[in-house]
Amino acid sequence: DAKTTQPPSMDCAEGRAANLPCNHSTISGNEYVYWYRQIHSQGPQYIIHGLKNNETNEMASLIITEDRKSSTLILPHATLRDTAVYYCIVRVLGEYGNKLVFGAGTILRVKS
Amino acid sequence: ETGVTQSPTHLIKTRGQQVTLRCSSQSGHNTVSWYQQALGQGPQFIFQYYREEENGRGNFPPRFSGLQFPNYSSELNVNALELDDSALYLCASSRSGRAAYNEQFFGPGTRLTVL
Predict the structure, then answer these.
(1) How many CB pairs under 8 A join A and B?
(2) Strand ranges inside B1-115, DSSP E
(3) Which residues in chain B touch residue A93, judged by CB atoms under 8 angstroms apart?
(4) Which of A50, A64, B29, B40 is the most exposed place for a label (fewest CB within 10 A)?
(5) pLDDT at position A63 over 80
(6) Rounded to the nearest 5°, which phi and psi values hold at B84?
(7) Which pLDDT tens digit goes with each residue over A28-62?
(8) With contacts defined as CB-CB under 8 Å, which chain B residues touch A45?
């Protein structure tokens, strides 16, 4: 699995967009970028994933660079409830589901 | 909520004891993965079960074992508990196959404390 690099922590003002970067310079052509978040003492929550096109859902947007070596998760209007650890994961889809290789993640603190 | 349930919520054991943790997968999911999360770290993959067979394993010793049942629920068993086994144990379920929509959905976890 490709290794990912994320900043250890970030702050964001409530109501503003939170932009969380992730580097995955060794990503392979068939590896997807996944984002999960984990609110204190809860199980990780799936946010979004993508291969090479930008993606958007009701929670967030995922911007992947053309060379696929980095990506940015965007929370368009951060709220206090978005305070969590955000994990960027690169993994290969296999025949029977896949393991997720978590790094240390980014602690996002949304402040009022 | 994801529909993945785990029991018990919390558990306290002593060194050398054995423990069994349980997980019920989300409806329609036939693959279950287990992760260990030590305090302050990201989850670490233990193993995955598909159709009642182990389908991938992380860097964990054989005293970590598991089962998957015909209804796709699963158990994680840990023998000869050590202090370092104290962690949050997470279960995640997913669909199998190569489809893009096989993201893993996590349960709330079981907090194991080994004294």
Answers:
(1) 78
(2) 5-7, 10-13, 19-24, 31-37, 44-50, 53-57, 64-68, 74-78, 87-94, 105-106, 110-114
(3) 98-100, 102
(4) B40
(5) yes
(6) -70, -5
(7) 888 889 999 999 878 999 999 999 989 999 999 99
(8) 2, 106
